[in-house]
Amino acid sequence: MADVYKGELTPLQRHVAFFDRDKDGVIYPSETYEGFRAIGAGVSLSAFSALFINGLLGPKTVPENEKAPAFKLPIYVKNIHKGKHGSDSGVYDANGRFVPEKFEEIFKKHAHTRPDALTGKELQELLKANREPKDFKGWLGGFTEWKVLYSLCKDEKGFLHKDTVRAVYDGSLFERLEKERKFKESTKKKC
Ligand code: HEM
Known about the structure:
Elements: H1 11-17, E1 26-27, H2 29-38, H3 43-61, E2 75-76, H4 100-110, E3 117-118, H5 120-130, H6 136-153, E4 160-161, H7 162-169, H8 172-190
Antiparallel strand pairs: 1-2, 3-4
The structure holds protoporphyrin IX containing FE.
Protoporphyrin IX containing FE binds at residues 12, 15-16, 19, 27, 32, 36, 53, 57, 75, 80, 83-85, 88-89, 91-92, 142, 145-146, 148-149, 168.
């Protein structure tokens, strides 16, 4: 197990640790792919996400003295805070810690239909409100994070629940989704 897992992880490190399947402290595209598949994403979304996330975010996280080949697109869990982009919600601070006030602000400002969930339209409003001028990479980053979350986790009425969003920020959501998927598959086989 890598050193990063021996101390306390920041919430942002916990957010990505699920995707470090072998817990060596580095997430390769194959692990991002495997993690997406494990939570129920299809082949195309998983393959696209692996290339997109590792390609754009990985290089920002590589330690200066690291000699590992860049073409392998590694993401270093210990430096994941360096992968933060602009036009985000601010719920993770610059060091990857959770900022409760910013989290509450999302729902105070944008949850108009009911206080504990967001509709697709309200999510769109959140994304627009987070946009910093001409920060195209940040827009794209925020857009994909929130849209993927919405597509995987909205309920049958199209609501994205506050407790689901909270679980994204502490990383527990991904483990829950994997367990749910495994359970569904095991019950399917029995029938
Ligand atoms: C299904 C998988 C994933 C979903 C649904 C997801 C969703 C999210 C969401 C909703 C945020 C909050 C953005 C904000 O506060 O505006 C976020 C932040 C972040 N995610 Fe993920 N994520 C996923 C996988 C990953 C993976 C695999 C990585 C990298 C290994 C990653 C790295 C990050 C980083 C660095 C941030 C901080 C962005 C910032 O605050 O600037 N995520 N993610």
